[in-house]
C-alpha cells in the first residue's frame, strides 16, 4: 500500500447517524472520490430506494447492495458512505474491512428518532410503529456495529467536528497498518 493506492475510508452506522454528510465532507477535505452507496444504487437503477423496495423487494435491494460492496472493496482511495444495513452481511463486512478503515458513526437513540421522524426516504420506516421498529432494529444490529474497529459518537456534534475525528482515526489507523488487509 502506498500513497497512490491508499486504503478506502468507509463510513457506516445506523440510519440517521449522518454517514453521507460526514463522508462527503471527509472526501472534500482529503480531495478523494466520494461514493454514496445508496445514491449510486439509485443512479444505476434509475429509481429511488423506496421505489426499489416497493417494486423489487428488499431481498433484491440487498443483492444489489452486496454486489456494490464487493465492487468497491477492490478499489482504493475512496471515501465510501454505506447504507445502514450494508455491513450486516458478513461477506460485505469482510470485504470492506479488508479494503480500508471502517468507521462506525453513532448517536443517541433519541437523537436518531428526532432526526428520522419526518423521513420519507427510508422504506424500512414506512410503518405506523416505526419508532418501536427502529429501536428493535438498532438492538439487533448493535452487536455488529460494536464489532467494527472504530466508532465516533456524533451526538451534539456538527458535520465538520465529526469529519475531523474521522480523518484523525483514518490516518492513525493507516500509520498503524491496521486495515485488515495488512493482517489477513
Ligand atoms: C437501510 C438504510 C438506508 C438504505 C436502505 C436500507 C438499512 O441507508 O440503504 O433504506 O437497512 O438500514 P441510510 O442508512 O443511509 O439511511
Account of the protein in words:
The protein is of the alpha/beta class. Helices cover 54% and strands 12% of the residues. The chain has eight helices and five strands, in the order E-H-E-H-H-H-E-H-E-H-H-E-H. A five-stranded parallel β-sheet has the order 2-3-1-4-5. Helix 1 packs across helix 8 and helix 4 runs parallel beside helix 5. The longest helix is centred in the last third of the chain and has 18 residues. The chain is globular. It starts with 7 loop residues before the first strand and ends in an 8-residue tail after the last helix. The mean pLDDT is 94. It binds shikimate-3-phosphate. Shikimate-3-phosphate binds next to loops.
Oligomer: single chain
What is the mean predicted local confidence, pLDDT?
94
- Would you count the extended β strands for me? 5
Order of helices and strands: EHEHHHEHEHHEH
| Most strands sheet | 5 strands, parallel
Count of separate DSSP helical elements:
8
| Secondary-structure content class | alpha/beta
Low-confidence stretches: none
List keywords for this structure.
184 residues, 8 helices, binds shikimate-3-phosphate, five-stranded parallel sheet, alpha/beta
Please outline what is shown here.
The protein is of the alpha/beta class and 184 residues long. Helix content is 54%, strand content 12%.
How do the helices and strands line up, and which of them pair or pack?
Layout: E1 8-13, H1 19-30, E2 34-36, H2 37-45, H3 49-56, H4 58-73, E3 79-81, H5 90-99, E4 100-106, H6 109-116, H7 130-147, E5 150-153, H8 159-176
Parallel strand pairs: 1-3, 1-4, 2-3, 4-5
Helix pairs in contact: 1-8, 3-4, 4-5
Amino acid at each position: 500500500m502506498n500513497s497512490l493506492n491508499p486504503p478506502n475510508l468507509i463510513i457506516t452506522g445506523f440510519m440517521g447517524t449522518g454517514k453521507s454528510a460526514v463522508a462527503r465532507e471527509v472526501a472534500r477535505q482529503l480531495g478523494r472520490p466520494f461514493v454514496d452507496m445508496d445514491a449510486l444504487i439509485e443512479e444505476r437503477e434509475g429509481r429511488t430506494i423506496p421505489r426499489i423496495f416497493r417494486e423489487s423487494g428488499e431481498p433484491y435491494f440487498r443483492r444489489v447492495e452486496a454486489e456494490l460492496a464487493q465492487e468497491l472493496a477492490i478499489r482504493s482511495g475512496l471515501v465510501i458512505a454505506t447504507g445502514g444495513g450494508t455491513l450486516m452481511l458478513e461477506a460485505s463486512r469482510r470485504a470492506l474491512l479488508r479494503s480500508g478503515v471502517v468507521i462506525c458513526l453513532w448517536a443517541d437513540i433519541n437523537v436518531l428518532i428526532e432526526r428520522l421522524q419526518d423521513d420519507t426516504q427510508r422504506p424500512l420506516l414506512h410503518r405506523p410503529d416505526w419508532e418501536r421498529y427502529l429501536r428493535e432494529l438498532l438492538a439487533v444490529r448493535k452487536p455488529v456495529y460494536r464489532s467494527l474497529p472504530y466508532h465516533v459518537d456524533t451526538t451534539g456534534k456538527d458535520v465538520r467536528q465529526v469529519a475531523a475525528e474521522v480523518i484523525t482515526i483514518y490516518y492513525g489507523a493507516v500509520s498503524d497498518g491496521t486495515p485488515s488487509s495488512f493482517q489477513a
